[in-house]
């Protein structure tokens, strides 16, 4: 079946949904200038050493890794990024009353900037806009810590207790927020259509939500540039650019 027919099937799937849930990954934000991790031009593909900055054990144990990570935070393209057509398409489905939740692995908050209700966006991996102390759990606007880095502190400690500061994101080796994961699991169990957009579905436990949805009877649509481990569970698989594919589903 040609891609036009597949797109038509996908559009019918979305049009017939009453309780649609979207699950988004890094691929939805590449058109906004934020590179993914594992793609051909992904951050870790181009610089395998950069993966250490996303490893919790390395971050805690190595001041060098923390210093590199703080510089990367200053330069992160997410500070200047704006939502693209794919984000706006999901926000439109929400306005139409079809989309009930967006489970995202992204930390860039572009979906909220596109107009989605923050209460409906479940940020499984946290966000880049807050800092958190690993010792006393103090949370603050990330811009406060970045101002200290620009002023010369290469590894700024917590202003309250002197502990290690980190972005409020979930690194490899850290556990997801249990309550948030439970909310995501409930959302996918209750949906009738699950749209996966821009996720390689290789990171657990987030990827397992797709199987959870399928086992509960949801029809699954996978939109991703490369094959995923869950393509066989999908009713339709689309490979086109998300900035074109998701708006076409409207």
Textual characterization of the structure:
The chain is α/β, with parallel strands linked by helices and 250 residues long. It is built from 10 helices and 9 strands. The strands form 2 sheets. It has a 6-stranded parallel beta sheet, sandwiched between helices. Helix 5 packs parallel to helix 10 and helix 8 packs parallel to helix 9. The longest helix is centred in the N-terminal third of the chain and has 13 residues. The model has no long low-confidence stretch (mean pLDDT 93).
- Helical/strand content category: alpha/beta
In what range is the share of β-strand residues? 15-25%
Write down the overall mean pLDDT.
Answer: 93
Catalogue the unreliable spans.
Answer: none
- Binned, the helix content reads 25-40%
From N to C, what is the helix and strand string?
HEHHHHEHEEEHEHEHEEH
Order of strands, widest sheet: 3-2-1-7-8-9
> What's the gyration radius in Å?
19 Å
**Shape, per Cα inertia axes:** elongated
The major beta sheet can be summarized as:
6 strands, parallel
Total number of strands: 9
Cα(first) to Cα(last) distance is 21 Å
Q: Count the DSSP helices.
A: 10
